[in-house]
Amino acid sequence: MATETAQKTVVDTFLNIEPVDLEHAGLSKDALKGQVAVVTGGASNVGLGYARAIAAAGAKVVVADLNAEAGAETERVINAENGPDSALFVKTDITQESDVKNLASQAFAKFGKVDILINNAMNMRLNGPVLKSPVSDLDASYAISARGVMLAVKEFVPAMIERGYGVVTYSATQFHYSPPMVGGSIYTAGKAAATSLIMSLANEVKGTGVNVFCLTPAGVGRFDFSKMPPPPKDIELPKDLPKFEPSMFAMPGFFSMIPPEAGGAAMVYCILHAKELHGSGIIINDVFTAMNYPFPNPATAPKPMPTHRLSDMELTMAFCTMGPGFSSR
Ligand SMILES: NC(=O)c1ccc[n+]([C@@H]2O[C@H](COP(=O)([O-])OP(=O)(O)OC[C@H]3O[C@@H](n4cnc5c(N)ncnc54)[C@H](O)[C@@H]3O)[C@@H](O)[C@H]2O)c1
To answer: 328: CA distance to ligand 1 center in Å?
Structure first.
Protein backbone atom coordinates (compact mmCIF):
# COMPACT_ATOMS: atom_id res chain seq x y z
CA MET A 1 0.00 0.00 0.00
CA ALA A 2 1.28 3.48 -0.77
CA THR A 3 0.53 6.96 0.48
CA GLU A 4 0.17 9.97 -1.86
CA THR A 5 2.51 12.91 -1.19
CA ALA A 6 3.03 16.05 -3.27
CA GLN A 7 3.41 14.47 -6.72
CA LYS A 8 4.81 11.03 -6.02
CA THR A 9 4.03 8.09 -3.78
CA VAL A 10 5.96 6.60 -0.91
CA VAL A 11 5.78 3.06 0.42
CA ASP A 12 3.54 2.87 3.46
CA THR A 13 5.93 2.66 6.42
CA PHE A 14 6.60 3.85 9.95
CA LEU A 15 9.89 5.33 8.69
CA ASN A 16 9.77 9.09 8.28
CA ILE A 17 10.20 9.29 4.49
CA GLU A 18 9.22 11.28 1.42
CA PRO A 19 9.77 10.32 -2.23
CA VAL A 20 13.29 10.16 -3.62
CA ASP A 21 13.28 12.06 -6.89
CA LEU A 22 16.64 11.73 -8.63
CA GLU A 23 15.31 12.98 -11.96
CA HIS A 24 14.33 16.24 -10.28
CA ALA A 25 17.91 16.52 -9.06
CA GLY A 26 19.28 15.97 -12.57
CA LEU A 27 20.58 12.46 -11.79
CA SER A 28 20.01 9.35 -13.87
CA LYS A 29 18.18 6.34 -12.42
CA ASP A 30 21.07 4.06 -13.39
CA ALA A 31 23.87 6.44 -12.38
CA LEU A 32 25.23 3.84 -9.94
CA LYS A 33 24.00 0.70 -11.70
CA GLY A 34 26.20 -2.33 -11.05
CA GLN A 35 27.69 -0.90 -7.86
CA VAL A 36 27.25 -2.10 -4.28
CA ALA A 37 27.20 0.30 -1.31
CA VAL A 38 27.40 -0.23 2.44
CA VAL A 39 25.77 2.51 4.53
CA THR A 40 26.43 2.44 8.28
CA GLY A 41 23.69 4.04 10.35
CA GLY A 42 21.54 3.60 7.25
CA ALA A 43 18.25 2.97 9.05
CA SER A 44 17.36 6.55 9.97
CA ASN A 45 17.50 10.15 8.92
CA VAL A 46 20.67 11.03 6.93
CA GLY A 47 21.76 7.41 6.38
CA LEU A 48 18.27 6.34 5.36
CA GLY A 49 18.21 9.16 2.79
CA TYR A 50 21.62 8.04 1.48
CA ALA A 51 20.60 4.37 1.29
CA ARG A 52 17.31 5.08 -0.53
CA ALA A 53 18.87 7.53 -3.00
CA ILE A 54 21.81 5.23 -3.77
CA ALA A 55 19.36 2.37 -4.42
CA ALA A 56 17.23 4.69 -6.57
CA ALA A 57 20.39 5.37 -8.61
CA GLY A 58 20.59 1.63 -9.40
CA ALA A 59 23.09 0.37 -6.82
CA LYS A 60 22.58 -2.52 -4.40
CA VAL A 61 22.63 -1.32 -0.80
CA VAL A 62 23.70 -3.00 2.42
CA VAL A 63 22.29 -1.19 5.44
CA ALA A 64 24.27 -1.66 8.66
CA ASP A 65 22.62 -0.38 11.81
CA LEU A 66 22.11 -1.16 15.48
CA ASN A 67 18.38 -0.61 15.16
CA ALA A 68 17.01 -3.98 14.02
CA GLU A 69 13.39 -2.87 13.61
CA ALA A 70 14.17 0.24 11.53
CA GLY A 71 16.86 -1.68 9.62
CA ALA A 72 14.52 -4.50 8.59
CA GLU A 73 11.94 -1.90 7.58
CA THR A 74 14.57 0.00 5.57
CA GLU A 75 15.38 -3.20 3.66
CA ARG A 76 11.67 -3.79 3.00
CA VAL A 77 11.08 -0.19 1.84
CA ILE A 78 14.12 -0.12 -0.48
CA ASN A 79 13.11 -3.46 -2.02
CA ALA A 80 9.56 -2.20 -2.49
CA GLU A 81 10.87 0.97 -4.14
CA ASN A 82 13.50 -0.62 -6.37
CA GLY A 83 12.68 -4.31 -6.76
CA PRO A 84 13.55 -7.47 -4.83
CA ASP A 85 17.17 -7.96 -3.71
CA SER A 86 17.99 -4.26 -3.99
CA ALA A 87 18.80 -4.06 -0.28
CA LEU A 88 20.14 -6.17 2.56
CA PHE A 89 19.95 -5.22 6.22
CA VAL A 90 22.61 -6.57 8.57
CA LYS A 91 22.18 -5.75 12.25
CA THR A 92 25.56 -4.33 13.15
CA ASP A 93 27.16 -2.63 16.08
CA ILE A 94 29.88 -0.82 14.19
CA THR A 95 32.06 -0.70 17.33
CA GLN A 96 32.30 -4.52 17.48
CA GLU A 97 34.89 -6.21 15.29
CA SER A 98 32.89 -9.47 15.06
CA ASP A 99 29.81 -7.53 13.91
CA VAL A 100 31.76 -5.67 11.23
CA LYS A 101 33.31 -8.95 10.02
CA ASN A 102 29.81 -10.46 9.86
CA LEU A 103 28.62 -7.37 7.94
CA ALA A 104 31.41 -7.85 5.39
CA SER A 105 30.82 -11.58 4.94
CA GLN A 106 27.07 -11.09 4.50
CA ALA A 107 27.60 -8.23 2.03
CA PHE A 108 30.13 -10.21 -0.04
CA ALA A 109 27.96 -13.36 0.09
CA LYS A 110 24.87 -11.50 -1.12
CA PHE A 111 26.32 -9.09 -3.69
CA GLY A 112 29.87 -10.38 -4.39
CA LYS A 113 31.68 -7.07 -3.80
CA VAL A 114 31.46 -3.67 -2.15
CA ASP A 115 32.32 -0.55 -4.19
CA ILE A 116 31.11 2.20 -1.87
CA LEU A 117 31.55 2.51 1.91
CA ILE A 118 29.56 5.25 3.62
CA ASN A 119 30.66 5.70 7.23
CA ASN A 120 27.65 7.46 8.68
CA ALA A 121 26.69 5.82 12.02
CA MET A 122 26.88 7.93 15.15
CA ASN A 123 25.14 8.24 18.49
CA MET A 124 23.97 11.84 18.41
CA ARG A 125 23.17 11.74 22.15
CA LEU A 126 26.85 11.74 23.05
CA ASN A 127 26.69 15.50 22.99
CA GLY A 128 27.58 16.66 26.49
CA PRO A 129 30.17 19.24 27.51
CA VAL A 130 33.63 18.11 28.65
CA LEU A 131 33.19 19.05 32.30
CA LYS A 132 29.74 17.49 32.66
CA SER A 133 30.24 14.20 30.81
CA PRO A 134 31.54 10.89 32.13
CA VAL A 135 34.74 9.75 30.41
CA SER A 136 32.78 6.68 29.27
CA ASP A 137 30.86 9.02 26.90
CA LEU A 138 34.12 9.97 25.20
CA ASP A 139 35.04 6.28 24.93
CA ALA A 140 31.64 5.60 23.35
CA SER A 141 32.03 8.54 20.93
CA TYR A 142 35.46 7.32 19.80
CA ALA A 143 34.16 3.75 19.64
CA ILE A 144 31.60 4.62 16.97
CA SER A 145 33.30 7.49 15.25
CA ALA A 146 36.93 6.35 15.20
CA ARG A 147 37.09 2.61 16.02
CA GLY A 148 33.93 1.84 14.00
CA VAL A 149 35.23 3.75 10.98
CA MET A 150 38.61 2.01 11.16
CA LEU A 151 37.02 -1.45 11.50
CA ALA A 152 34.85 -0.85 8.44
CA VAL A 153 37.70 0.63 6.42
CA LYS A 154 39.94 -2.37 7.19
CA GLU A 155 37.17 -4.78 6.24
CA PHE A 156 36.19 -3.21 2.88
CA VAL A 157 39.02 -1.07 1.49
CA PRO A 158 41.67 -3.77 0.77
CA ALA A 159 39.34 -5.48 -1.75
CA MET A 160 38.60 -2.08 -3.35
CA ILE A 161 42.34 -1.46 -3.79
CA GLU A 162 42.72 -4.91 -5.33
CA ARG A 163 39.96 -4.17 -7.85
CA GLY A 164 41.27 -0.63 -8.48
CA TYR A 165 37.97 1.03 -7.71
CA GLY A 166 36.17 2.26 -4.62
CA VAL A 167 34.56 5.21 -2.89
CA VAL A 168 34.86 5.80 0.85
CA THR A 169 33.15 8.65 2.59
CA TYR A 170 32.47 9.89 6.10
CA SER A 171 29.56 11.96 7.43
CA ALA A 172 31.70 14.67 8.98
CA THR A 173 30.52 17.62 11.02
CA GLN A 174 31.19 21.32 10.52
CA PHE A 175 32.07 21.55 14.23
CA HIS A 176 35.43 20.09 15.14
CA TYR A 177 35.34 21.64 18.50
CA SER A 178 32.16 22.65 20.13
CA PRO A 179 31.05 26.27 20.05
CA PRO A 180 29.34 27.05 23.39
CA MET A 181 25.92 27.47 21.79
CA VAL A 182 25.96 23.89 20.50
CA GLY A 183 27.33 22.10 23.56
CA GLY A 184 28.40 18.88 21.85
CA SER A 185 32.03 18.56 22.89
CA ILE A 186 32.05 14.78 23.25
CA TYR A 187 30.28 14.36 19.92
CA THR A 188 32.64 16.71 18.10
CA ALA A 189 35.74 15.01 19.56
CA GLY A 190 34.63 11.69 18.05
CA LYS A 191 33.79 13.32 14.72
CA ALA A 192 37.18 15.05 14.55
CA ALA A 193 38.98 11.74 15.22
CA ALA A 194 37.17 9.94 12.42
CA THR A 195 37.73 12.84 10.00
CA SER A 196 41.44 12.62 10.76
CA LEU A 197 41.44 8.85 10.04
CA ILE A 198 39.56 9.33 6.78
CA MET A 199 41.84 12.14 5.58
CA SER A 200 44.91 10.01 6.37
CA LEU A 201 43.33 7.11 4.48
CA ALA A 202 42.91 9.42 1.47
CA ASN A 203 46.67 9.95 1.47
CA GLU A 204 47.38 6.23 1.94
CA VAL A 205 45.24 5.11 -1.02
CA LYS A 206 46.15 7.91 -3.41
CA GLY A 207 46.53 6.55 -6.94
CA THR A 208 44.88 3.18 -6.22
CA GLY A 209 41.52 4.04 -7.79
CA VAL A 210 39.91 4.33 -4.35
CA ASN A 211 38.62 7.83 -3.70
CA VAL A 212 38.04 9.12 -0.19
CA PHE A 213 36.26 12.25 0.96
CA CYS A 214 34.04 13.70 3.69
CA LEU A 215 30.53 15.00 3.14
CA THR A 216 29.10 17.13 5.93
CA PRO A 217 25.31 16.73 5.98
CA ALA A 218 24.77 19.95 7.95
CA GLY A 219 21.13 20.51 8.79
CA VAL A 220 19.77 17.36 7.14
CA GLY A 221 16.86 15.63 8.80
CA ARG A 222 13.37 15.68 10.09
CA PHE A 223 13.98 16.45 13.74
CA ASP A 224 11.36 17.13 16.33
CA PHE A 225 13.04 19.47 18.82
CA SER A 226 10.65 18.34 21.55
CA LYS A 227 12.21 14.86 21.37
CA MET A 228 15.80 16.06 21.46
CA PRO A 229 17.85 16.48 24.63
CA PRO A 230 17.80 20.13 25.77
CA PRO A 231 21.01 22.14 25.35
CA PRO A 232 22.97 22.52 28.60
CA LYS A 233 21.42 25.36 30.65
CA ASP A 234 24.21 25.91 33.15
CA ILE A 235 26.79 27.07 30.64
CA GLU A 236 27.30 30.79 30.34
CA LEU A 237 26.97 31.76 26.67
CA PRO A 238 29.00 34.61 25.25
CA LYS A 239 26.66 37.57 24.75
CA ASP A 240 27.65 38.30 21.16
CA LEU A 241 26.74 34.87 19.79
CA PRO A 242 23.37 34.12 18.21
CA LYS A 243 21.34 31.56 20.17
CA PHE A 244 20.88 28.23 18.42
CA GLU A 245 17.14 27.81 18.44
CA PRO A 246 14.34 26.33 16.30
CA SER A 247 13.09 29.74 15.12
CA MET A 248 16.29 30.04 13.08
CA PHE A 249 14.89 27.36 10.78
CA ALA A 250 12.24 27.36 8.15
CA MET A 251 9.54 25.47 10.08
CA PRO A 252 9.32 26.62 13.70
CA GLY A 253 9.49 23.65 16.06
CA PHE A 254 11.26 21.43 13.58
CA PHE A 255 14.84 21.28 12.44
CA SER A 256 13.95 20.57 8.86
CA MET A 257 16.16 22.57 6.55
CA ILE A 258 17.20 19.76 4.21
CA PRO A 259 15.10 16.63 3.61
CA PRO A 260 17.13 13.38 3.91
CA GLU A 261 16.03 12.46 0.36
CA ALA A 262 17.72 15.63 -0.96
CA GLY A 263 20.75 14.72 1.14
CA GLY A 264 20.71 11.32 -0.58
CA ALA A 265 20.68 12.95 -4.02
CA ALA A 266 23.69 15.06 -2.94
CA MET A 267 25.51 11.89 -1.84
CA VAL A 268 24.85 10.24 -5.23
CA TYR A 269 26.27 13.37 -6.90
CA CYS A 270 29.38 13.23 -4.67
CA ILE A 271 29.92 9.51 -5.38
CA LEU A 272 29.81 10.30 -9.10
CA HIS A 273 32.41 13.05 -8.51
CA ALA A 274 34.50 11.12 -5.97
CA LYS A 275 37.68 11.50 -7.99
CA GLU A 276 37.42 15.29 -7.85
CA LEU A 277 36.61 15.23 -4.14
CA HIS A 278 39.40 12.84 -3.15
CA GLY A 279 41.24 14.01 -0.04
CA SER A 280 38.84 16.81 0.78
CA GLY A 281 35.52 17.54 2.36
CA ILE A 282 32.41 19.30 1.21
CA ILE A 283 29.47 20.78 3.07
CA ILE A 284 26.10 19.75 1.71
CA ASN A 285 24.97 23.27 0.77
CA ASP A 286 27.97 23.50 -1.53
CA VAL A 287 26.98 20.21 -3.17
CA PHE A 288 23.52 21.62 -3.90
CA THR A 289 25.10 24.71 -5.40
CA ALA A 290 27.39 22.55 -7.57
CA MET A 291 24.41 20.44 -8.67
CA ASN A 292 22.23 23.50 -9.18
CA TYR A 293 19.70 21.55 -7.13
CA PRO A 294 16.18 22.70 -7.95
CA PHE A 295 14.53 22.78 -4.53
CA PRO A 296 10.77 22.69 -5.02
CA ASN A 297 10.21 24.98 -2.05
CA PRO A 298 12.56 27.99 -2.10
CA ALA A 299 11.66 28.75 1.54
CA THR A 300 13.32 25.54 2.72
CA ALA A 301 16.18 25.56 0.22
CA PRO A 302 19.67 26.00 1.65
CA LYS A 303 21.10 29.45 0.99
CA PRO A 304 23.37 29.53 -2.10
CA MET A 305 27.02 29.66 -1.15
CA PRO A 306 30.11 29.97 -3.31
CA THR A 307 31.05 26.41 -4.19
CA HIS A 308 34.38 25.28 -2.85
CA ARG A 309 35.97 22.15 -1.54
CA LEU A 310 37.48 22.17 1.92
CA SER A 311 41.08 21.02 2.09
CA ASP A 312 41.93 18.55 4.83
CA MET A 313 43.30 21.39 6.94
CA GLU A 314 40.24 23.56 6.38
CA LEU A 315 38.04 20.60 7.16
CA THR A 316 39.80 20.07 10.46
CA MET A 317 39.71 23.77 11.27
CA ALA A 318 36.20 24.44 9.95
CA PHE A 319 34.20 26.72 12.18
CA CYS A 320 36.97 26.92 14.75
CA THR A 321 36.36 30.66 15.03
CA MET A 322 32.67 30.31 15.86
CA GLY A 323 33.39 30.45 19.56
CA PRO A 324 34.85 33.63 21.07
CA GLY A 325 38.38 32.19 20.88
CA PHE A 326 41.11 34.70 20.09
CA SER A 327 39.24 36.23 17.17
CA SER A 328 37.05 38.44 19.38
CA ARG A 329 39.95 39.99 21.32
N1 LIG B 1 21.89 15.54 10.67
C2 LIG B 1 22.79 16.50 10.57
O3 LIG B 1 22.46 17.69 10.39
C4 LIG B 1 24.26 16.19 10.64
C5 LIG B 1 25.19 17.23 10.55
C6 LIG B 1 26.56 16.91 10.56
C7 LIG B 1 26.95 15.58 10.65
N8 LIG B 1 26.01 14.60 10.75
C9 LIG B 1 26.46 13.22 10.83
O10 LIG B 1 25.68 12.43 9.93
C11 LIG B 1 25.48 11.13 10.48
C12 LIG B 1 24.00 10.81 10.51
O13 LIG B 1 23.35 11.77 11.31
P14 LIG B 1 21.79 11.61 11.66
O15 LIG B 1 21.31 12.96 12.01
O16 LIG B 1 21.13 10.85 10.59
O17 LIG B 1 21.88 10.71 12.99
P18 LIG B 1 20.77 9.70 13.57
O19 LIG B 1 21.02 9.60 15.04
O20 LIG B 1 19.41 10.07 13.10
O21 LIG B 1 21.16 8.31 12.88
C22 LIG B 1 22.31 7.62 13.26
C23 LIG B 1 22.10 6.16 12.92
O24 LIG B 1 23.27 5.46 13.36
C25 LIG B 1 22.85 4.28 14.03
N26 LIG B 1 23.87 3.87 15.00
C27 LIG B 1 24.19 4.46 16.18
N28 LIG B 1 25.16 3.78 16.79
C29 LIG B 1 25.48 2.74 15.98
C30 LIG B 1 26.41 1.67 16.07
N31 LIG B 1 27.23 1.53 17.13
N32 LIG B 1 26.48 0.78 15.06
C33 LIG B 1 25.65 0.90 13.99
N34 LIG B 1 24.74 1.88 13.85
C35 LIG B 1 24.65 2.79 14.85
C36 LIG B 1 21.54 4.65 14.70
O37 LIG B 1 20.76 3.50 15.02
C38 LIG B 1 20.90 5.54 13.65
O39 LIG B 1 20.13 4.78 12.73
C40 LIG B 1 26.15 11.13 11.85
O41 LIG B 1 27.45 10.59 11.72
C42 LIG B 1 26.24 12.58 12.20
O43 LIG B 1 27.31 12.86 13.08
C44 LIG B 1 24.68 14.86 10.75
So the answer is: 33
Residues 66-105 as b or e (16 or more Cβ within 10 Å = b): bbeebbebbbebbbbbbeeebbbbbbbbbbbeebbebbbe
Ligand 1: residues with CB < 6 A are 40-41, 43-47, 65-67, 92-95, 120-124, 144, 171, 173, 191, 216-221
In-domain check, residue 52: yes
Cα(311)–Cα(283) distance, rounded to whole angstroms? 12
Residue 206's domain comprises 2-317
Read off the pLDDT of residues 29-52 as tens digits, 9 standing for 90 and up.
999 999 999 999 999 999 999 999
CA-nearest residue, atom 36 of ligand 1: 41
For atom 11 of ligand 1, the residue with the nearest CA is: 120
Q: Is residue 161 part of a domain?
A: yes
Nearest to 218 by CA among 252, 180, 248: 248
Residue 327 lies in a domain: no
Q: For 61, how many CA atoms within 13 A lie in the half-sphere containing its CB?
A: 39
- In the chain, the number of structural domains is 1
Q: 123 C-alpha vs ligand 1 centroid, how far in Å?
A: 6
Identify whether 187 is a catalytic site residue.
Answer: yes
Strands 36-40 and 116-119: parallel
The residue from 50, 142, 187, 293 that is catalytic is 187
| Residue 71, CB-side half-sphere exposure with 13 Å CA sphere | 20
Q: What value does the mean pLDDT take over residues 294-318?
A: 54
Identify whether 179 is part of a domain.
yes
Tens digit of each residue's pLDDT (9 = 90 or more) over 95-154: 999 999 999 999 999 999 999 999 999 998 888 888 888 999 999 999 999 999 999 999
CA-closest candidate to residue 65, choices 86, 39, 84, 85: 39
